[in-house]
Amino acid sequence: MPDINQLEQTASQIRRDIVRMVHRAQSGHPGGSLGCADFFTALYFEIMDHNPKFQMDGKNEDMFFLSNGHISPVWYSTLARSGYFPVNELASFRMINSRLQGHPTTHEGLPGVRIASGSLGQGLSVAIGAALAKRLDNDDSLIWALTGDGELQEGQIWEAAMFAPHYNIDNLILTVDWNGQQIDGANEDVISLGDLEAKWQAFGWQTTVFDGNNMSELIQTLQKAKENTGKGKPQVLLMKTEMGAGVDFMAGTHEWHGIAPNDEQLQSALNQLPETLGDYSLTDKK
Amino acid sequence: MSWDIFQPYDKKATRDGFGAGLHEIGKSNDQVVALCADLLGSLKMQAFKKDFPDRFIQVGIAEANMMGIAAGLATAGKIPFTGTFANFSTGRVYDQIRQSIAYSNKNVKICASHAGLTLGEDGATHQILEDIGMMKMLPGMTVINPCDYQQTKAATIAIAEHEGPVYLRFGRPGWPVFIPKDMPFEIGKGQRLKKGSDVTLLATGHMTWFALEAARSLEKEGIDAEVLNFHTIKPFDHELLLDSVKKTNALVSVEEHNRFGGLGDMAAQYLAINHPTPMKFVATEDTFGESGKPAELLEKYGLSPQHIHAAALNLIEGK
Q1: Are residues B197 and B171 in the same domain?
Q2: What's the mean pLDDT when you consider all of chain B?
C-alpha cells in the first residue's frame, strides 16, 4: 500500500510551490493548479510508470498529456519534484528566457512536456494519437490525459470523444478536472455541462466519478482505472475537485482562476501549507 | 539541358501523385501512418489503406481531431500524413496546427488536395486561395506546392524523410505531366526549367505549366523568358531568384493563390530589401472564387498563359 501520508505531504509542498510561483510572477493560474495538486501527486509519485530521464517518444513508459495548459504551475512543480529538472528552476516561471512558459510548451525544451497546450480542447486528440502509436508498437504502457471541465465546451473534445470508442482506445485514461468553475463563473452559469456522466457514457466511455481531493480515494480510483485498461473501452474519470483547494481564501471560487496573491495573501496561504520537501530557492536558479 | 524536354507525356492529377507517393513510402517506411477525414477516394489513399490497413486511420469528418491525433502519433515517433481538402487542412484547423503541430514542432505531414480555383464546380467554400499564406506564416513550417503528378509523387516521398512539419499542397484536375521521372526533387531548392535573359517567370503548382506555355509564346515574339519552378515556397530559395533577376531585372510571379500571402509576396519582400526589381503578380486578386470548370475559372480570374504573357510584355515594355 502506498504511504498516503507521505503523498499528502508531497502535495502540500507542491501547493506551496504553486502559490510561490504565481506570487513571484504576479501572474498565472493558482485555482485549478491547487485543485489538481493531489491528482498530480498521485499520478507522478505513485501511479504512472515514467522516467524522469525524459524521452520525447515515451516508448515503454506511461505518458501524460495536459490539455488545460493554464494549470502549468502544478505540473511544473510536480515535474521538478519528480526529478525532471532542478526545483530551483521553478523560480523562473513566466520570466523572460525561461523554459517555464506561462503555458506548457516543447519549444524551450522543458523535460516532461510533450505538446504545447493552452488553447483549449486539443489535448485529448493528441493523447489518442499517442495511444494509437503505442498500439501500433505493441507497447502496453498507458496514456494519461487531463482536461478541465469548462474546456469540455470546445467542440474538438467531442470529436475525440466519438473517435476513441470507435477504435476501442482502451490504453488511455482521461481525467476531467470537474471543479465546476471557469473564468466567467460557474460552468452552470456560463454554459451548463448538463449530465456529464451520461454524456460520456452515451459516447461509449466507461465513467467513474470520484473525489480528487482525497488522496486515498484518488489512489484507489487511479489504480482501479489501470486495472480496467485493455478491456476494449476508453475510460474517463470525472474528478470532483475544489478550485483553490488547500488555501481557504482561494477555495471554491472562480475568483482565483487566473490572478496572483499579494505578499500578505502569499503569507496567509503558506501558513496553511506545511513545507515538507524544502522550498525552492528564489536566488539560485540552477 | 534543353528546356524542350518539358513536354507533356501524360495527363494526371497531382493528387494521384500524392496517392502513388504515399503508397510507395508506405512500403519502404513502416513508421508512416496515414489519416483521412472521410475523403479517402478524393485523396487517392485507397492503395495505402489496402496494403497497410493497420497504419491507415479513418478519422471521419473531424479535421481538428485528425490534426491532434497526428500530433500525438508524431510525438510517439510515427510519421503521420493527414489527408483532406486544402480548405479543411488549413483554415478550419489553423489553431490545432499552430499549437499542436507547428509550435510543438511535430513531424506531421499535412497533405492538402483540391487547392485553388481548379477544384472547380464545388465553388468558393472549397476553393481555398489563402492557404499558402496561412501556412508560410507558421514558424518552422515547410510549404510545398509541386507542379505536376510526377513532382507531387517525388515530394510526397521526400517529405517522409524530412524531419519537421510540412504543408504539401496539390490539386484536383487532370494536368499535364511534364517533369521527367529522373528529375531530382530537393526540398527548398527551386528549379530553373528554362534559361532566359529578358524576364523571369517565377511559378509554383499548376501554374508552372502555364509559365512554360507563356515562355513558348513569348519566344515566338523574340522574348527570352527564364522559367523558375518554386515547388517549395518555404524555405524560400532566394539565391536562385536573385541569380535570375540580376540577369533579367523583371519578374512575373505566377500562382493559383491570392496575391496577398503567396509566392509573389515572398519574392517581393525579399527583393524589396535585397534587389528591387520591377514585378507583376499573376495571382487571384483579393477575392473568393466561384463555381465553374477549372479552365473557365483560371481564365476568368486572370491565371491563363495569356495573362502571364501579357504581364511579361508589359514589364519588358517598361524597361
Answers
A1: no
A2: 97
Q: Is B112 on the interface with A (CB under 8 A)?
A: no
Is pLDDT of A8 > 70?
Answer: yes
Interface with B, mutate which of A59, A107, A125 (most B CBs under 10 A): A125
Question: Mutate which of A68, A107, A132 to test chain B, going by most B C-beta atoms within 10 A?
Answer: A132
Interface contact A108, partner B, CB < 8 A: no
> How far is the C-alpha of B302 from the C-alpha of B239, rounded, in Å?
28
In a domain, B184, yes or no: no
Give yes or no for a contact between A190 and A184, defined as CB atoms under 8 angstroms apart. yes
ipTM summary value: 0.97
- pLDDT score of A190 more than 70: yes
Whether residue B5 is contained in a domain is answered as no
Q: Is B285 a catalytic residue?
A: no
Q: Is the peptide bond before B235 cis (omega within 30 degrees of 0)?
A: yes
Residues B154 and B215 occupy one common structural domain: no
Determine the distance in angstroms separating the CA of A139 from the nearest CA of chain B, rounded to an integer: 11
- The share of chain B scoring above pLDDT 70, in percent, equals 100
Task: Kindly report the number of other CB atoms within 10 A of residue B247's CB atom.
Answer: 14
Domain extent listing, chain A: 4-271
- Is the domain of B154 the same as that of B246? no
CB contact B268 to A (< 8 Å) = no
Nearest to A132 among B60, B69, B96 (CB): B69
Domain shared by B160 and B217, yes or no:
no
Q: How many angstroms separate the CA atoms of A214 and B63, rounded? A: 38
pLDDT in tens, B89-99: 999 999 999 99
Residues B155 and B218 in one domain: no
pLDDT range class, residue A204, cuts 50, 70, 90? very high
Cβ distance of A129 and B62 shorter than 8 Å: no
Query: In terms of pTM, does the model score above 0.90?
Result: yes
| Predicted local confidence at residue B77, as pLDDT | 98
Contacts of B70 in chain A (CB under 8 A): 129
User: Which residue range(s) make up the domain with B134?
Assistant: 12-177
Q: Where are the alpha helices (DSSP H) in chain A?
A: 4-25, 30-35, 37-42, 72-81, 123-136, 155-166, 187-190, 196-202, 215-227, 263-271
Q: Are residues B165 and B303 in the same domain?
A: no
Closest residue, chain A, to B96 (C-alpha): A122
Q: Please check whether residues B243 and B278 belong to one and the same domain.
A: yes
Mean pLDDT of A251-273: 94
Are B42 and B132 members of one domain? yes
All cell numbers assigned to A188: 452552470
Residue B5 pLDDT level (bands cut at 50, 70, 90): confident
Do the beta carbons of residue B239 and residue B267 sit within 8 Å? Answer: no
Interchain contact B67–A (C-beta under 8 A): yes
Helix (H, G, I), strand (E, B) or coil at B71: helix
Domain-embedded: residue B72: yes
Search chain B and give the residue with CA nearest A57: B76
CATH of A4-271 among 3.40.50.12280, 2.40.10.10, 1.10.10.10, 3.40.50.970: 3.40.50.970
CB contact under 8 A, B68 and A156: yes
